[in-house]
Amino acid sequence: MALNGKTALVTGGGRGIGQAIAIACAKAGADVVVAARSVDELNETVKQVEATGRKGIAIQADLGDRSALAGFIESVKSQSMDIDILVNNAGIGSSANAKLIVDYDDDFWELSMALNLTAPYRLTKAFLPGMIEKGWGRVINISSMLGKLGFPTAAAYTATKHGLIGLTRTAALETATTGVTVNAICPGPIRTPMLVKRLQISADEMNISVEDVIRTMTPMGRILDPEDVAGLCVYLTSDLANGITGESCNISGGMVMH
Asked: Using CA atoms, how far apart are residues 17 and 6, in angstroms rounded to an integer?
């Protein structure tokens, strides 16, 4: 059990990549705290975490709201939960407001910044000191292949995911001698509700089927599953990855190779 005795905090843990990471961490031996907006989805994740024999705690929070984020951090700390692993996964994708920059909604830009970049910054700032004090900790930021590329009609998403890689690298340098590692995972197309919306937009733009879009997206000819990302996350949080920090690790089916 690579994570036996550790406690992981996974944001956006109600579904998709976050849920898969929460369950994988539990299977590796960690107790897991999950945060998201949907109570029903959180409870389902906790149910699956507890089925592994580990402790699961659900905390409902809208991390894109500044006051709610502050309340969430206080809630975790007030319960004396010692966070060893922080997985910043919660985010909002481009499919929610796919527009060119000249037509972009400023409110959506601000929401994207708050949830995709400011929340990981503030959570890292809140829980990093405890990790440094113990001499062991892991921060995993879920960025995207679009943290390395541009993409039309996705200005806010690409900007925040680029920013998240910058935050990762700076935090890694600042903690390099402390026993804490900070890394980013950059998924390509992953089978999630967020991606399904994006695929439909792309299919409509090209006047082809979603299945045709999927077949041409990666050299593997398929999109990946949330469990693919979860496996990489567990590896990076384990002691097998003690020498890895400041990296932005692609998992894109060969779509991005640098």
From this structure: 20
Q: Which residues have a catalytic role annotated?
A: 157
In 66-179, DSSP assigns E strands to 85-88, 137-142
pTM of the model: 0.93
Number of residues that make up the chain: 258
Residues 26-54: tens digit of each pLDDT: 999 999 999 999 999 999 999 999 999 99
Cα dist. 178→9, 51, 106, 174 in Å? Answer: 20, 34, 39, 9
Distance CA 138, CA 252 (A): 22
Q: Domains of the chain (ranges plus CATH)?
A: 7-188+226-250 (3.40.50.720), 189-223 (no CATH)
Q: From CA 85, how far away is CA 178, in angstroms rounded?
A: 15
Q: What is the DSSP-derived secondary structure letter of residue 61?
A: -
Q: What angle do CA 166, 252, 29 make, to 5 degrees?
A: 80
